[in-house]
UniProtKB/TrEMBL annotation:
Species assigned in the record: Asarcornis scutulata
Lineage of producing organism: Eukaryota, Metazoa, Chordata, Craniata, Vertebrata
PANTHER family per the UniProt record, alphabetical: CHROMOSOME-ASSOCIATED KINESIN KIF4A-RELATED, KINESIN-LIKE PROTEIN
Domain called Kinesin motor: residue spans: 1-357
Main location as per UniProt: cytoplasm
GO molecular function terms listed in the Swiss-Prot or TrEMBL record: ATP binding; microtubule binding; microtubule motor activity
Cellular localisation: Cytoplasm, Cytoskeleton
Name of this chain's protein: Kinesin-like protein
Length: 361
């Protein structure tokens, strides 16, 4: 869990700080009628540096596992404006300020450092896509973005057909691909965020290493190890009442919230509320409907029913990361502001459920 600082706007408005890190992976929420403590693998407060998040979250170990042939994923999720994109990417275009580089650029550097030590036996390639209004679009292909069909196969699972994959060998090349794709990603301004992501973005690094054999059989080629490192920047959950979204922005918000609902983070409408009320028209559903992937995956192995990955394109593409062969790091980004209390509590409850999910890598 990462707690961002109060913004200048929140300070001028007189918002109170209601979230405090207690150390040892514990975070405390203290406000009127709400006093709760949550435990996680690690908690980074407002003063934590980007480097501290990289080292303390286990991101370096995740890179090493991907090189060893595992399928690895890192998520950033939370309310719009909570610092997800900053945590993953830092301020884009500020490569001259290494202190603010995000998890992505630091992982690229770590990966290429390992690649150089492996010599010519390691091949790297990258693909970058976004899910905008339930359409999968390639962010690296030239020309205007067009929708890619999702397919399924027994060997690959769900995948985007005709997605461009680009080979790279240097830090400059992969950072340029990241910048190129991020510039094409859909963003808009609203009351809570001047650069709000309007789509979910997935950057996937594929790592292929040729197996070393001292006595290869004549006419045979060993496939070696193949690992992946996927970075997922989820669009932020948002309430239209707070963001002031209308027209196209409102349609985008509905699609964002619908896919996050399928993933497992949601609020029920007043008529279906099953939990305590936190604010006007905002309810946290203590027992989410059975369709939420994270909620079902958090159940003990023997009590799980069918996992509805097909409910959204986001959950289809993340099926292996959520409950399959992968090793997954999830970073919950929250605001300490009293004005964001309901969203913060919802994110923390969601993160608590996600922590109970186990996979078989």
């Amino acid at each position: 869990v990462r707690v961002r600082p109060l913004t200048c706007t929140e300070t001028r408005r007189g918002d109170r700080r209601v979230v405090h890190s207690l150390g040892d992976g514990t975070v405390h929420v203290s406000a009127a009628r709400h006093d709760a403590t949550f435990g996680f693998s690690a908690v980074f407060d407002a003063g934590a540096s980007q480097e501290a998040v990289f080292e303390g979250s286990g991101m370096r170990q995740l890179v090493e596992l991907a090189i060893d042939g595992f399928s690895c994923t890192v998520f950033a999720f939370g309310q719009t404006g909570s610092g997800k994109t900053y945590t993953l990417m830092g301020p884009l275009g500020q490569s001259e300020a290494p202190a603010v580089l995000g998890l992505m650029q630091r992982s690229f550097a770590c990966l290429l450092e390992h690649s150089r030590s492996h010599g010519p036996g390691l091949a790297l390639s990258a693909s970058y896509l976004e899910i905008y209004n339930e359409q999968v679009r390639d962010l690296l292909s030239p020309g205007p973005p067009c929708a890619l069909p999702l397919r399924w196969s027994k060997t690959r699972g769900f995948y985007a057909e005709n997605q461009l994959s680009v080979d790279f060998e240097s830090l400059e090349t992969i950072v340029e691909l990241l910048l190129q794709g991020s510039r094409r990603r859909r963003t808009s301004a609203h009351a809570l965020n001047k650069h709000s992501s309007r789509s979910h973005a997935l950057l996937t690094i594929r790592i292929r290493s040729r197996a070393v054999s001292t006595n290869p059989a004549p006419g045979t080629n060993s496939p070696g190890k193949q690992g992946t490192l996927c970075f997922v920047d989820l669009a932020g959950s948002e309430r239209v009442k707070d963001t002031g979204s209308t027209g196209e922005l409102c349609v985008e918000a509905n699609n964002i919230n619908r896919s996050l609902l399928a993933l497992g983070k949601s609020w029920g409408p007043p008529a279906a509320a099953a939990g305590p009320r936190y604010g006007p028209d905002v309810y946290f559903v203590a027992r989410p409907p059975a369709g939420h992937c994270i909620s079902l995956l958090a159940k003990p192995q023997g009590k799980r029913t069918h996992i509805p990955y097909r409910d959204s394109k986001l959950t289809r593409l993340l099926a292996h990361s959520l409950g399959g062969w992968g090793v997954t790091l999830m970073v919950a980004c929250i605001s300490p502001s009293s004005r964001c209390l309901s969203e913060t509590l919802s994110t923390l409850h969601y993160a608590s459920r996600a922590r109970r999910v186990t996979t078989r890598p």
